[in-house]
Amino acid sequence: MNYLSIPGEVEEIIRISKREESYYVLEEDEGLKKILDELLDSRILVCKVRAAFSLGDENIDFQWAPSRIGSKIYEPSNEELRELVVSKYLLPVKISESAEIDLSALDGGLTLIVGRKGSGKSNLSKTLIVRIIEHGGRCLVFDINGEYEPTAMRSKFLVLKPGENMFLSIAGLGKELFITLMETIMGLPPSSVWELRRILDSLENRGSLNLKNLWNEVFFGKFNDLVKEALIRRLTVLKESGLFSDEATDLDKLLREVSDKAIVINLRGLPKPFRQLIVETVLNKVVKMLEDGEIKPLFLFAEEAQSYLDEKTWEDYITRMRHIGLSVVFITNEPDSLMKFVYRQADNCFIFSLMNENDLSYISKMSKIDAESLMSLVPTLPVGKCLAFGNVTNNIPMVLSVEKENVFRTGGTRKVLLEAVSRN
Questions:
Q1: Cis peptide before 379, with omega less than 30 degrees from 0?
Q2: Average pLDDT across the chain, whole number
Q3: Which end of the chain has the smaller Cβ count within 10 Å, N or C?
Q4: Nearest to residue 147, comparing CAs of 129, 165, 126?
Q5: Where in the chain is the domain with CATH 3.40.50.300?
Q6: pLDDT interval class at 405 (50, 70, 90)
């Protein structure tokens, strides 16, 4: 928004300097005086064309300037916008009383939810999960902050906490996956990997493949002391983690069952190696079952995904996801820490308030929106509003309201001083 300059800056300065003289001459003509005042105070809005609609309500090429005589420029009402945009959604759903998105656009796509803490990211992600479940979809959630634990959420979410009501077993993982995890996550040297494979083959042939028998075979076995020490050190970490048990959780059964609840893996409090172990294990199972056609396509919601799997691993999953039926949603408050390829391949994005120019510059790499619009709109967003763009809004950037009232009473920032004030 700028002041209207006609036809140039110098002439405008002269006109302003001569205003009092002009008014003196025309002081009796109040109508003309009013016109001159309005002219001096006129403003011009420089806008970007997002879409064009013909009278037949079809998208048309907008690489043209509208007629000055036959066109009228005005701010459309919410009803008109809904008719022009939302009416084209395949599966319109409300994320608040005044905002709708095309839920079908999340299916088979890569979606980002970014914003600073307390801006509304968690509330939006939970709302999307509930809407997906209501329409027959299935969701798997990696919860880094334990936001899905409260009793009020048990009707919509099945929460699995590793070491409490979720356990892994070597037999359940399978020999090859267990070896891969020991090698990549636990850092087992190649010489020890060879010995581990030999022991696992022997246990598998005897039908006694579990952590207890593996420990005994390693501890009492007669082979190289350095290899034995490397194996014992890593197996001790696994035993003390409490993540492994012979009575393992049947993840295959949970993934196969048709349920009206999202499966949530609570990663809160786990050291990074164990988070990585759990996530890699679950994702390997999901991908294999999807590839084999054992389960229906599902949605994966990953909070702060960069904190438990490296870029190469995520890139592999993202590359294959469209073909195997995995729709991914990343949620983060650190846009610059998320993998670069995610922004290049993202289909949808919900951006809550961000003030840091580096964060905005990072997000602007997305091809769905221009950097100028991003830089001008996002810093001004209040809490509870987001800039949505991509397939979810028919590729027209829209500022949407997300309900401030969090129906689950979670995800907010706990404050000590305000709690003390309320008690007093």
A1: no
A2: 80
A3: C
A4: 126
A5: 90-155+261-270+277-423
A6: very low
**Pairing of β 2-3 and β 43-44:** antiparallel
| DSSP reduced 3-state for 223 | coil
Q: Which of 159, 175, 163 is nearest to 210 (CA)?
A: 175
At residue 46, the pLDDT reads 75
Sequence-distant (6+) residues with CB within 8 A of 209 are 170, 171, 175, 200, 203
Q: Say if CB 115 and CB 388 are below 8 A apart.
A: no
* pLDDT at res. 301: 95
String of DSSP letters for 91-115: SEEESSSS-EEEGGGGTTSEEEEE-
Q: What residue spans of 60-164 are helical by DSSP H?
A: 78-84, 121-134
Fold of 90-155+261-270+277-423: Rossmann fold (3.40.50)
The pLDDT assigned to 16 comes to: 63
Q: Are 167 and 245 in contact (CB under 8 A)?
A: yes
CA distance 277 to 289: 18
Beta bridge partners of 59: 53
Dist CA 317 CA 180 (whole Å):
17
Ranked by mean pLDDT, the top range of 9-23, 191-205, 357-371, 380-394 is 191-205
- Distance (Å, rounded) from C-alpha 380 to C-alpha 389? 17
**Residues 237-242, mean pLDDT to the nearest whole number:** 82
Token pair, residue 210, equals 């579990």
Rounded to whole angstroms, the Cα distance separating 349 from 392 reads: 8
Phi, psi of 307 (to 5 degrees): -85, -5
Amino acid code (one letter) for 417: L
Interval 310-341: pLDDT, tens:
888 888 888 888 788 899 999 988 888 888 88
Percentage of the chain lying above the pLDDT 90 cut: 19
